Structure formats: structure tokens, C-alpha cells
Amino acid sequence: MVSTTDTLIEVKDIQVQFNTPEGMVRAVDGANFSVKRGQVVGVVGESGCGKSMTARSILNIVRPPGRVVGGQILYHRTNAETIDLMTLPPMSDEMRRIRGAEISMIFQEPRASLSPVHTVGDQIAENILLHQNVSKQEARIRTLEMLQQVHLPKPESQLDKYPHQLSGGMCQRVMIAMALSCRPNLLIADEPTTALDVTTEAQILELMQQLQNDFNMAIIFITHSLGVIAEMADEVVVMYLGREVERGRVEDIFSNPRHPYTVSLLESLPRIEQDREWLQTVRGMVPDPYTRLTGCPFHPRCDHAIVGVCDQIEPPLITLENGQQVRCVLYDPAIEKPNAPSEEVTR
Question: At how many degrees (to 10) do helices 136-149 and 120-131 cross?
């Protein structure tokens, strides 16, 4: 298949299921979004909404008992070739070449991702040797260059240290160096600053912005923090219960959110000018994963829900005039909404 688009990755109707003794869980239930070359797409939502499973699907690393049961991941290579990553066996040679060399991933707990019995230098060099035809000496030189590029303090003295000898922030810099050592087209960052203190988090975010500009790579940035999304992303995908409920440019999402869930998430952000003694939160909780609601999955928590409509009709994805997309019946003119509130959901 040949690609003529500047789109790098297209996630199309991805579905991930977990078969457990308690029943079947649909962790991802038809997620759809795309990422252009050099673009940062932020994926946000509460825990249990399918963000990480969607990311793992792209690299085909969903672990049993989970499995991808439907959808496509279209990867448009720079040579104009398009591959559906879902058609590649997880441990095939081609998938292994793509994973780490063309698409890389960093995780939220770096020490859990790094081997405790190998030095950080050896682990980065191993990734370079796996994907590039270089000598061990050249791989070590490139490893040192990467550690310098991620601003690891005194990189020469850190090469032969083990992960337990480094701080959490230093380990995260090592993970970033490893992920970028082969200059990937796409970096997937799965809550990479969650385990860090706020000062280190700010440093890591600044580093990622700098490296994204230096390498001109695309990033899928997964987080529960809308503040991080506002700082990092060009576009935003808001996920709820396994599928996107709103997506659009970061400035549109923050200035004029349309889906009631997005509005609630933004309302829960703390503000200096607030005179309240408590934080506003999203009412209720994400539903039990073993229970699938009819209609819109957000309707039990929604202040704009229409009885007889939102609890019965599965909302379509509506594209608005500014290109913003929202999965809500309030914006679908084809659906009759008796006694509906104003279709303009505002903060």
C-alpha cells in the first residue's frame, strides 16, 4: 500500500478485550485518531479509560489475557509505504524492527522498565546494536552522545551504573535516551512524569519538548493531567471508557470544550482565582469495566443527559465547523431531543 499523506499513524476502530474469570472486559472499544509527522497528540482521560491499552496496541504489546480483537493501525512510512501493524505477528522480524527503531515507547515507572542486572549504558547500546549496523564501540559512543543529549549529569560516569544507583529523574532520562537512540518517527510517552516530583516533571517535559523539536518526531503523550496536555500538545484526544469522546486542536479544546466530560475535566482544574475551599470534581465514577451501559457511557454522570435519548442512543462522532469532533447527541441534528437543554455545552 502506498501513502501520499503527511499522516504518520492512523488508529482506526481499535478494540482490545480481556477475558477474565469475572467476565469479558472491553478495555478499548473502538478508538479512532491520527497523528501527523512532527505533531504532538495528547491523550487524556481518567484511569480505566483505555489510554495505555490503545498505546500498547500500536506497538502490538498487549499482554495476555488481553488481546486486540479488531481495528487497524496504519503506519505510513517515510518511503511512502503503508503497513497495517495489526497484520504483523507481535514477535515477527518486521514488527521487532519497527518497535524501537521507528516507533518507541517510554513508560511512567522507569525503574520497572529498565533491567536491574545490566548497566544503563549496555541497555541503550543493546537497542542501537539491535536496530543499526554498527560496532560495539560505535554503539557505546552513540550511547554517550544520547546521554549527553538528554542532559544526564556527568554522563561519562553514569554509563556503567545500574538503574538502582540513579534517581528516578535520571532513570527517566535514560529511558528517553534509549527510546530516541535510533531516531524514531514516533515516540509514545505513557504518563512519563507521573512517578516524578513536580520539579523533575517540569525538567523532563522541557527536555521532551526540546528533543521533539530537534528530531522533528511525532509524539503521542498519554496523561491524566490537562495541565501537561496544555503545555505539550498540538491536538487533544479525550477518551472515556475505551473510545474517544472529543478531539481537536488544543486551543479549541481548552477555550471551547464541547463534550460534557471534557467540560467536567476542565472544571476540575484548580485555579488561582477560585475562592472555593474545595476542588470541583467529575461527578460519579468510571463505570464497572464488566458492565456495559446502553446509550452514551457517560450519561449517568452527565449534567446534560436527556432521559430516553442519552440512555438509549449510542452517540455518533460529529464533526463541527472548526474541525473539532465530539461524540454527543447534543450536537447531532438528526437525533430528536425532546426537552433538550441548549446544545451549546459551556463551562
Answer: 120
